[in-house]
Structures are given as C-alpha cells and as structure tokens.
Amino acid sequence: MPAKSRFTRLDAFTKTVEDARVRTTSGGIVTIASLLIVFWLVWGEWSDYRRVVVHPELIVDKGRGERMEIHLNISFPRVPCELLTLDVMDVSGEQQTGVKHGISKVQLAPASQGGRPIDVRALDLHADEPADHLGPDYCGECYGPPAPATASKPGCCQTCEEVREAYASVSWAFGKGEGVAQCEREHYSEKLQAQRDQGCRIEGGFRVNKVVGNFHIAPGRSFSNGMMHVHDLNNYLDPSQGDHTFTHQIHHLRFGPQLPDDLTNKVGGRAMGWTNHHLNPLDNTEQVTTDAAFNYMYFLKVVSTSYYPLGWKSKGHSADQGDSSDLVSIGQHGLGQDGSLETHQYSVTSHKRSLKGGSDSQEGHKERLHAVGGIPGVFFSYDISPMKAFAPSSAEPSPWRRQ
Fold it and tell me: Which of 157, 169, 160, 218 is nearest to 192 (CA)?
C-alpha cells in the first residue's frame, strides 16, 4: 500500500465529498463571529498579561533621620510681599526663620485691579542707590544692636536689610526705618508705601525634618523673645500702611513629590481608586476675612507613601536618599532613578479665630469661646503618622489563572 494511503487511514477528521458540501450565509456569519470571539479572547488575555496594578499595604514606618519636602503656592491678596515672612520650626529644636532659599515671592496688583502678577521688571520700585560716594572705609551704624553675623562687612551694617537683621537679633521692633541712614538711602519707607495695597503669592518648596513641626506665614520679621516666637507687627497693623487682612487662597500644598501624570495613566483604570486618594485636600482652598487680627490654623496628619514600579526589586530601590538628601536639589527629593517614588499623603482639619477673643455666636455656637491674643497669619501644624502606605506594582493575573 502506498505511503499516502497509510496516512489517509489515520485521518480522524474525514471530509465529505465535494458534492455533499453546501456553503450558506448562516455558516459564514458563524465563522466570522467565531473568529471575532477568538480574537477578543486572545486580546483580553494579552491585555491582562500587560496590565500593571498597584496593591497598597499599610506597614510600620521604620525610617530614621529622614527629611521631607513641603511645596506650596499660596496667594495673599491683601498683604504685600515686604510684610510676609515664612518660618519653620519642629520639635527637634530646629528653626528656619525668614525662609528664602527655594521660595519665591510674586507681587500681585491690588485686588481692585484684578490681583494679576506684576511684571518682574516692575518689582523694584526704587532701585537701591549705590553707596560708592561713601568710600571703601565706610562702616554703617547698626543703631544700638551688634552687627549681624551675616553682615557683608564684619561689625558694620552696610544696608537697611542688615540693620533690620541687627534689630531682630535683639528682639527690637524696626518700623519704617525712620532716622536710619541706610534705609533712607534705599527708600525703604517709600517701598512700603508703594506696596501697601498690593498682594503677594508665595510659591516654592523647602526641606524639613520628618518630625512633628509647623510652618507659618505671618506679617513682619520674626525673632525670639525669651521662650516666645514673636513677629514685628508694627507695619502690618499701621492704618497708614493699608487695610491688611489674611484673606488667602491655597492653590497647592503637598508634602513630597507629586504622583506624575504619566504614572497615573500607566497604572490604569483599576488603580485609579488608589491614585485618587493621593489628591491634596487643601488644594484650591480659599478663606476670606475682613479682620486684620485673624488667625487661621490647619492641622495635618502626614502619612508616608512609597510607590515602587514593576520589577523594582531587581533594579534596587534608590528613592531613599538618607543622609544625602540635602545634596539633592529642591523638587528632586524622593524621586528614584528606577522610577520609585517616596512621597506623602495627608489629611487636614482647620480652625480659625479672631485674636480679639469672643465667641462664635454669629455662627450659632455661643458656647465656643476664643482666647485673646496671638499672631495673625496662616499656620500649618503637621504630625507624622507611625504608619506608612507601601504601594508596590505587580502584573494583573488573568481571570483564568486566579485562584
């Protein structure tokens, strides 16, 4: 028997003769539908194989000696930039007064003119007049207190700013600089007068210890008086300097780097429940008051959050910079080269009160009484949670492979 005939006998799928075959429309529809279903099933399996999801877990935060970044963008339409001061302090005893590094102050036009940002070229209303005629041996007087350690010439106060620092070092109020030659030469009083109806937007970021602490934006230069932290409020409360209040709008406030948009898109729809929790609750918050002696307090509970991309274990984790965090520029802390991300989420409660005291009877709470005194401004007190959100990425298993 020929070889072909032997294999023909083994054929389990015998065919009908050509005369018995009938091609119908319904058969063609069934064939096309079968092909589409097969293609859909194969595509679904491939999509499941490629899908990356985030599985958040809650663990104990064992980090020690870490630092974190705070990024903010807040507008004050009724307080000029010259009067605003940003201070930071924590329970470890570290203080940062008059923070400037990483922080920008954008002068805003008066609220009656729309509050638009003023062009940078118009910020310096009176350029500092050069003191070349004073000679190289000139040593400016500090008017009582010792010269600040940061003075450009040891033992001297060459500028109005250095005189202000000298006054702050001995807890003296400065005022408008009347009778101070450096301030009169630099037209400090005229600058205050020109900016009295302006607003200010504070934006940027700064780095703090990862411990309980607070930062606040208040009027006037700050200094320590005994065990108390106080501010020079003379120019803020002076009626001739304008009708100042701490009406403010928080455009943005976050702890650590923001979850990137491309990362949010990459993790896909099933992970959106987790990414939605990373929204910053104080964003686009606005508070309005007509009282100059008014205080706003925000109490925040900060939770560390670690995101690790797919395959991070094999690549290694580089987001935790440890003691080298201060070597990283502002805005880059917490970003790992392998795509890992060390950031923070937070919850918030708020409180506001008039520094004149009284009750909340106008709001229907006459039993609620407020103490008299304090510093006007916006205060943020943050506490660090002992727990940490650990969010590794993994491939989504196929429904057919799930147990």
Answer: 160
